[in-house]
Design goal:
The protein is of the alpha/beta class and 282 residues long. It has two domains: 8-122 and 271-280, Aldehyde Oxidoreductase, domain 3, CATH 3.90.1170; 127-269, TIM Barrel, CATH 3.20.20. 40% of the residues lie in helices and 19% in strands. The chain has helices spanning 8-22, 55-65, 94-124, 143-152, 170-176, 179-189, 203-211, 224-234, 251-255, 266-269, and strands at residues 39-46, 50-51, 70-73, 80-81, 86-93, 131-133, 166-168, 196-200, 216-220, 239-243, 261-263, 276-280. Strands 6-11-10-9-8-7 form a six-stranded parallel sheet. Helix 2 (55-65) runs antiparallel to helix 3 and helix 5 (170-176) packs across helix 6 (179-189). The longest helix has 31 residues, at 94-124. The radius of gyration is 23 Å and the shape is elongated. It starts with 7 loop residues before the first helix and ends with a strand.
């Protein structure tokens, strides 16, 4: 599938904010230990299997710190990379390379972790037509970057935020006075180009949502038996998505029920950073 592409200014904004965490006063005091004309070569290596993701963020860190630094990549985003592989080589001023090191690694270890997690789920359901979807449960400040990583891993993006899609959840339904009332308000007030999805928690609620015109329905925390009943009753009249209690051990069972999509918050919020290291070469 196609991945998102971001303008350099969006990536730069992410990077500047991250660099400010290390360089609040614009100074790397540890860097003073190194003569300012020292030129070195460094390599980045992965210490575990991974799906590569985040090259543009990595490059931007070094570009902002020192535009003269040269980076040669041996892999690219979406590559399946084996443990022990050298990802790239960096040549330039030692001070700048060491100043940029941690921020640059933070980006690719986090985004690669997201892509790697997604790819594992995608591989499990590869025998089905189910789409693996992300959620808004992302690391603050990294929403778009993690959404990109999801697509690199082979998954699909749910809405990016509250501005580009409607998901009518339990509390919205309660505040509106019920499923039918909530959908009526949505159809009357939301621009036609904005997708509308509603969450239901039982077969009876699914029936009400369908009768009220819903064409994109989220089945929340339902048993496999109830999901199958919903799929059979819906009979392709609406897109059905499942969420809640989905993990690598259970996702194939959900996928085989005939649903269209599965959304998994853990893809972006329960990730474990990839183990990467940078070494300056003798």
């Amino acid at each position: 599938m196609k991945t998102i592409k971001f303008a350099p200014n969006i990536i730069a904004s992410n990077v500047v904010e991250a660099l400010n965490e290390d360089l609040a006063n614009g100074v790397d005091y540890t860097g003073f230990l190194i003569k300012d004309n020292t030129i070195v070569k460094a390599i980045i290596k992965t210490n575990q299997d991974m799906i590569m993701c985040g090259c543009d963020w990595f490059d931007m860190v070094f570009k902002i710190c020192d535009s003269s630094i040269d980076i040669t990549w041996y892999v690219k985003d979406s590559d399946n990379v084996a443990s022990g592989t050298v990802l790239c080589e960096i040549n330039g001023h030692a001070r700048s390379i060491l100043t940029a090191e941690r921020t640059a690694l933070n980006f690719i270890q986090t985004l690669s972790a997201t892509a790697t997690s997604v790819r594992e789920y995608v591989n499990i359901v590869s025998s089905t037509k189910v789409k693996i979807m992300d959620t808004r449960k992302t690391i603050p400040g990294l929403r778009l970057a993690q959404k990109y990583a999801v697509t690199v891993g082979g998954g699909y993006n749910q809405r990016h935020g509250l501005y580009d899609g409607v998901l009518i959840k339990e509390n919205h339904i309660m505040a509106c006075g019920g499923i039918t009332a909530a959908l009526s308000e949505a159809f009357n007030k939301i621009p036609k180009h904005i997708p509308i999805q509603i969450e239901v928690e039982s077969f009876e609620e699914l029936c009400e949502a369908l009768n009220a015109g819903a064409r994109n329905i989220l089945l929340d925390n339902m048993t496999l038996e109830t999901i199958k009943k919903c799929v059979n009753y819906t009979n392709k009249r609406a897109t059905l998505e499942v969420s809640g209690n989905v993990n690598k051990d259970t996702i194939l069972d959900y996928a085989k029920t005939g649903i269209d999509r599965v959304s998994i918050g853990a893809l972006t919020k329960n990730i474990k950073a990839i183990d990467l290291s940078m070494r300056i070469m003798p």
